[in-house]
């Protein structure tokens, strides 16, 4: 199962490397989202207080777009159908696509953090910088796992149906609310927004990890029945 | 109550057993429950608006709670029923579509009542706190619950055969069972750690006047009866809808076969009608 | 070492290298590969198949003829285990389609209107992907590609740039690499040039004589008629068998 999952993840990433849709379209989309936030929230002191939240908001919206893309390549020429016909283990398809999605999300998040540093004036506090960075990285990893799992699950469910572009956000956004909450709080602790301390962030990472585990396990179980006809 | 033409009520399918009669979703049972529910609601109105006292702090606006609390209770009950029915559909050997209909009907009722809860609650909030909405743990979770089940209902309408719909919805129903506690837990963490504004306790006084408690109790009973009544009618009307589709299928089958018969007899070298695959349908 | 790159050749090292030799379950009737009786299948509410009964033996090439909308595509998709059997009984390679739809799938290959390819990848990458999902060796994969004439110049071309015929051949190469025993082809000749069609027919003929069972839905009556051992008329969701050629009475 793992071999096939890795095969599928590699295939997804290879497709992305060829088509460069995420790099050429989604990353700029995320960037312009960050800029739009700045237009809407025009005060600098507000902006750097809410920056962690904005980064994760931009991530959520970009997640929807990337998920649409990852399943568009499957429905373009009936490849997902073909995988179903071939009897490829749906859990492998789920894990493989989630891995590829997660990888792309991590790249996106790194870029968004960079953008936040530049545009919103975020910075890592100098005391306990190491602790902050560790918290930051762990947050990114655990949040991404959860997002990738939920995105893949609902993306697969909605793929190919009429109205899938609107069904996907409707299903995904409530489901990933815990990630939005937890990740924002954890990053706030990491960068010291409003006096938050790094140690407070770890309980949120706990929440994110719990969510990620539930999402991956639940998703792997549910994906098969959901994409089946 | 829903009725269909008696003329179409001939053919027999599995849904038939779910229906009391071919013409209506009402039975003596539902009529009884309906009457008791109306009586209970009347009783609620009497106690809620009349006999129970006004609250010390909230004055008359506390009376909204006699509707607000039962509706959210009912919504939780409805969603639990959806979850249980989804599990029963998925894990039982004979995948009876009755479970799927129960899950769907319950979710519809639940969503309606969450909407009522939120609307009524907003009114109450305006009167007591001066604001329609507060971002406290319970309200936020309720709002997310609402949207989650709207998504569930959207997925139910994606189309396909009844079994496909049932499986898809049942899986989603089970996912919701995992989702909701996670959401609730995160929102609680969110709100318990940083108390920005003091949030009014939604239940009002912990020490409620005996009569007020009783009125609340009456409200809960009345709305539960209402739920049962709605469930019975809705599941039966869903069975009728499914039956109609089945019947539509039978008719369409007949038309399609007639089509084949015509095409075959029209062809010059066609084999005689005896070899035609009309046969018996299942 | 097997000199020929033919994955169907039974001169391969082990029986398992030959994709068409047994890996089927219940062997009550080892030669009866497809058996459908009074099968009804629905698309939404429409009864696309209104009672189909056919049987297919191993190694046959059966042509499905019929007007558009008759249900040929639905029949093929049903045999692939993609559609649920609404009413009736159906068995493929010994698997019961009503209860074991999923188990049929690894042994069956469906080439429908879509090709199941990743448009941004090259031919080689597509065939390799499909081959590797079943653990095929590089040797087998290369064999599959050369059989379908997509090795060489075409191998590293992106699928998006291929002609319809070339995409189809790539798709068949994936099928071969996947070791499918039953081939379900929905209008495979559509969009192919004359040379492409000849090549396709040759491959299909060879595959059948090595044990593959093929169901072809086609409007190319003359060409496919010559290729097929038997033909079946699909009209308005039902199947009427013309006794053609040698076997096949139903």
Layout of SSEs?
The complex is a heterotrimer of chains A (229), B (282) and C (250).
Chain A lengths: L1 H18 L1 H20 L3 H33 L2 H7 L4 H30 L9 H30 L5 H12 L1 H15 L6 H30 L2
Helix pairs in contact in A: 1-5, 2-3, 2-5, 3-5, 3-6, 3-8, 5-6, 5-9, 6-7, 6-8, 6-9, 8-9
Chain B lengths: L27 H24 L13 H27 L5 H32 L8 H20 L5 H32 L16 H57 L16
Chain C lengths: L31 E12 L2 E12 L3 E5 L6 H8 L7 E6 L2 E2 L4 H4 L3 E4 L11 H11 L4 H10 L16 H14 L4 E5 L7 H16 L3 E5 L3 H7 L2 E6 L2 E5 L8
Q: Explain this structure to me?
A:
The complex is a heterotrimer of chains A (229), B (282) and C (250). By secondary structure, chain A is an all-alpha fold. Helices cover 85% and strands 0% of the residues of chain A. Chain A has helices spanning 2-19, 21-40, 44-76, 79-85, 90-119, 129-158, 164-175, 177-191, 198-227. In chain A, 54% of the residues are buried. Chain B is an all-alpha fold and 282 residues long. Chain B has helices at 28-51, 65-91, 97-128, 137-156, 162-193, 210-266. Chain C has 250 residues and is of the alpha/beta class. Chain C has a domain at 25-117 and 181-242: P-loop containing nucleotide triphosphate hydrolases (Rossmann fold), CATH 3.40.50.300. In chain C, the strands form two sheets. Chain C has a six-stranded mixed beta sheet with strand order 6-7-8-3-9-10, sandwiched between helices. In chain C, strands 2-1-4-5 form a four-stranded antiparallel beta sheet. The model of chain C is unreliable at 1-29 and 243-250 (pLDDT under 50). Chain A binds chain B through residues 153, 157, 161, 167, 170-171, 173-175, 177-178, 181-182, 185, 200, 203-204, 207, 210-211, 214, 218, 222, 225-226, 228-229, and chain B through 144, 147-148, 150-151, 154-155, 158-160, 164, 167-168, 171-172, 174-175, 178-179, 182-183, 185-187, 189-190, 193.
Beta-strand percentage of chain A?
Answer: under 5%
What is the number of E strands of chain A? 0
Q: Output the CATH topology of the domain at 25-117 and 181-242 in chain C.
A: Rossmann fold
**Any idea what the shape of chain A is?**
globular
Question: How far apart lie the N and C ends of chain C?
Answer: 43 Å
Query: Ranges of chain A with pLDDT <50 over ≥5 residues?
Result: none
Assembly classification: heterotrimer
| Global outline of chain C | globular
Structural class based on helices, strands and sheet pairing of chain A: mainly alpha
- How many beta-strand runs of chain C? 10
